[in-house]
């Protein structure tokens, strides 16, 4: 249920409605827009009477939200959410590109990559310190040493950092270093982890599960939002289909659909979506044309030596070429870089 307050509703009237919601055993999430204040009512599926709230002072109307995701819905929050990360605004008019290696492998590797992607125009540095891998014998990341190297790269370049967190137990240590928590595809439905990052004030970059529907994905976002963290960024990274010519099937359809259904920023990952470095640039341009607010791209100075995902990583010079092509594209989309 969504309770829309009148334009002239007072803070006292808003608080009275919140008190009435909570008195009935539900939670109230207040969204202050430029024109209206909206109160989202979330809880279990017990019936809740509309007429009681319609009669309260300051209430304009009461709406039922048909979608199971409430807080992620545009019904609850009609205006686009913008997430600020150390001065970088995600979800606004500016296209934001996140770039860096799949995994932090060494000090020289992450620093070389960080300076290269910054020079090319990336706004945020990515790099995995903890790596969930299909094989237990594959490189699993440097752990806290990798986090320290990312923090050093941030200090040297000024770029905010994003890195993956894999378990609720790791949230405190990763949160000590990172500017954005990344939730990978394998953890999209790790509800304990979603609630743990939801209890922090650090933005959450939520990748779509490789075999999940858009609705299931948004319900995972709902776990973070309902835990108190409103700074959620969605990332389409491709789903597993019968097609084997590419690593995954990047669902570009999901990008404009999400822009209709939700107020949350939407990113795309053409690196994981294709698995092939020579497909990254054209698919990246297609994602922006479909309405994505940004891209996350794997870049490695020596992909042939990469400990993970070398085949889909761009060399710095190819990343520069991609960024130049995006700068030519974005004005036609009414956006900036």
Q: Which runs of at least 5 residues are low in confidence (pLDDT < 50)?
A: none
At the fourth level of CATH, the homologous superfamily of the largest domain is Aldolase class I
Radius of gyration from CA coordinates: 21 Å
User: What does the main sheet amount to?
Assistant: 8 strands, parallel, barrel
Looking at the overall shape, the CATH architecture of the largest domain is: Alpha-Beta Barrel
Mean pLDDT: 94
The CATH topology name of the largest domain reads: TIM Barrel
Going across the major beta sheet, what is the strand order? 7-8-9-10-11-12-13-14
Instruction: Tell me the structural class.
Output: alpha/beta
User: Count of DSSP E strands?
Assistant: 14
What is the total number of structural domains?
Answer: 2
Give the overall silhouette.
elongated
Cα separation of the termini: 38 Å
Helical content stands at 25-40%
Order of helices and strands: EHEEHEEEEHEHEHEHEHEHEHHEH
Task: For the structure shown, list the relevant keywords.
alpha/beta, Alpha-Beta Plaits, 11 helices, 8-stranded parallel beta barrel, 337 residues, 14 strands, TIM Barrel, 2 domains, 4-stranded antiparallel β-sheet, 18% strand
Gist?
By secondary structure, the protein is α/β, with parallel strands linked by helices. The protein has helices spanning about 10-25, 50-55, 105-120, 145-155, 170-175, 190-200, 215-225, 255-260, 270-275, 275-290, 315-330; strands spanning about 1-5, 25-30, 35-40, 60-65, 85, 90, 95-100, 125, 160-165, 180-185, 205, 230-235, 265-270, 295-300.
């Amino acid at each position: 249920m969504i309770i829309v307050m009148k334009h002239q509703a007072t803070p006292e009237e808003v608080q009275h409605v919140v008190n009435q919601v909570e008195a009935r055993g539900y939670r109230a999430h207040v969204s202050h827009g430029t024109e209206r204040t909206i109160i989202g009512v979330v809880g279990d599926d017990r019936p809740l009477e509309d007429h009681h709230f319609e009669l309260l002072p300051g209430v304009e109307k009461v709406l039922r939200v048909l979608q199971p995701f409430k807080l992620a819905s545009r019904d609850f929050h009609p205006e686009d959410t913008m997430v600020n990360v150390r001065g970088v605004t995600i979800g606004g008019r500016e296209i934001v590109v996140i770039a860096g290696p799949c995994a932090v492998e060494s000090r020289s590797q992450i620093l070389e990559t960080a300076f290269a992607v910054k020079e090319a125009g990336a706004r945020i540095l990515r790099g995995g310190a903890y790596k969930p891998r299909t094989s237990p014998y594959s490189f699993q990341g440097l752990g806290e040493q990798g986090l320290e190297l990312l923090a050093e790269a941030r200090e040297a370049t000024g770029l905010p950092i994003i890195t993956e967190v894999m378990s609720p137990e790791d949230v405190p240590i990763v949160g000590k270093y990172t500017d954005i928590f990344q939730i990978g595809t394998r953890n999209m439905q790790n509800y304990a982890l979603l609630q743990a990052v939801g209890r922090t004030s650090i933005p959450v970059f939520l990748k779509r599960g490789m075999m999940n529907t858009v609705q299931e994905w948004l319900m995972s976002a709902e776990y973070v939002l309902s835990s108190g963290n409103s700074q959620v960024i969605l990332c389409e990274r491709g789903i597993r289909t019968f097609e084997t010519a590419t690593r995954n099937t990047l669902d570009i359809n999901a990008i404009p659909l999400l822009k209709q259904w939700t107020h949350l920023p939407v990113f795309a990952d053409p690196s994981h979506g294709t698995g092939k470095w020579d497909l990254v640039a054209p698919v990246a341009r297609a994602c922006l044309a479909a309405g994505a607010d940004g891209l996350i791209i794997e870049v490695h100075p020596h992909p042939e030596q990469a400990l993970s995902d070398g085949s889909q990583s761009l060399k710095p010079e190819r990343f520069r070429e991609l960024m130049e092509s995006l700068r030519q594209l974005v004005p036609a989309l009414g956006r900036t870089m």
